[in-house]
Amino acid sequence: MRARVNLPRTARAGEVVTVKTLVAHPMETGYARDVQGTVIPRHIITDFTCTYAGREVFRAAFRPAVAANPFLEFHLRATVSGPVAFRWRTDRGEETTLERTLEVT
Amino acid sequence: MTALLVLVLVAPLSGSEFLNPETRALQDDPFENPGYLWVDRGAALWSETGCARCHALSDVVASGFPRYDETSAALIDLSGRVNRCRSLDAAPAWDHDDEPLLALTAFLLNRERGAAIEPVADSRAEQFREAGEAFFRQRRGQLDLACAHCHDALAGMRLRGERISQGHTNGFPTYRLLWGTLASTHRMFRWCNEAVRSEPFPVGSPEYVNLEYYLRHRGRGLRIETPAIRR
């Protein structure tokens, strides 16, 4: 899974910053069939988490109805400088992680 | 609406002019636009696959394809050109809609985003442009429709829930929301051909390369928008 995240590098203490994430994934529902009529097995991202300075600040559960290449936008309040880590996990146990650093000034 | 119809008659209009505002906003945001997932990957592939061994990125004019090719005495499109390089490396050819090829072509065309389409002038390519135009005007399929019927005569009108675009290629490879993936011009041609209930041609076929070349002339002056978003 290729992923992109967008958040500011620096923020003032107490500022609310916008975080955007995008991940490449087909999000196969398990209901579609290929040209031969065979069911394409379900293959979806099931959960996403974001931790900030070691603490979980955002979590999302994905269902089969979520479109391919899921995009998420959420907010967090900048308190301390530290790593912001993102993790996507699929129903097959695949995992993609990304990390950015948010510096609080 | 009237103003748009008048415009349609005088100048080529990009497909993005026919989008609803939400889709347009998605295309214009370089982060939210999912097409950039492919652009990023293409940038990595450019060095990984060794393109940089022979080609300086600054010399590549991806928007000048399809163009006349002396080796085959026919037109060659960007995907065909990439595959020729792969054959020199004895690497298997990619299909037009294989992920790495979409990524590479999206990366190369994205670098020219904002540039105007200007087909490479070549008298030897003239016959192929004519063949492409003939294809565009040829009725086909059970619905007995030519590309021109909708994309010239009825552009701006509605077809079920959507507006009919002029059918230009300046945003390709395009992220199609319906497919949830990036798609080549040839995949779109196939889809259109099937929609009028005709037998589509294979991707990479001379018929489609000629059509693509004609469409570059037809859309001359439009700005490159790769990766565009289309419904």
Offer a quick outline of the entry.
Chain A is mainly beta and 105 residues long. Chain A contains no helices and eight strands.
CATH class of chain A: Mainly Beta
Oligomer: heterodimer
Give the number of DSSP strands of chain B.
7
Largest sheet of chain B: 3 strands, mixed
Task: Please state the second-level CATH architecture of chain A.
Answer: Sandwich
Q: In DSSP terms, counting alpha (H) and pi (I) runs of 4 or more, how many helices of chain A?
A: 0
Number of strands of chain A: 8
Q: From the alpha-carbon coordinates, what is the Rg of chain A to the nearest angstrom? A: 16 Å
Helix content of chain A: under 10%
In the CATH classification, which architecture of chain B applies? Orthogonal Bundle
- Portion of residues within helices of chain B: 40-55%
Q: Give the number of helices of chain B.
A: 10
Description:
The complex is a heterodimer of chains A (105) and B (231). Helix content of chain A is 0%, strand content 52%. In chain A, strand 7 (82-90) and strand 8 form a beta hairpin. Chain A has strands at residues 3-6, 10-11, 16-23, 45-52, 55-61, 71-77, 82-90, 95-104. Chain A has a 5-stranded mixed beta sheet with strand order 2-8-7-4-5, with no helix packed on it. A 3-stranded antiparallel beta sheet of chain A has the order 1-3-6, with no helix packed on it. The mean pLDDT of chain A is 94. Chain B is mostly helical. Chain B has a single domain, classed as Cytochrome Bc1 Complex, Chain D, domain 2 (Orthogonal Bundle), CATH 1.10.760. Chain B is 43% helix and 8% strand. Chain B has a 3-stranded mixed beta sheet. Chain B is globular. The relative contact order of chain B is 0.21. The model of chain B has no long low-confidence stretch (mean pLDDT 92). Chain A binds chain B through residues 2, 4, 6, 20, 22, 24, 26-27, 67-69, 71, and chain B through 31-32, 34, 36-37, 40-41, 177, 180-181.
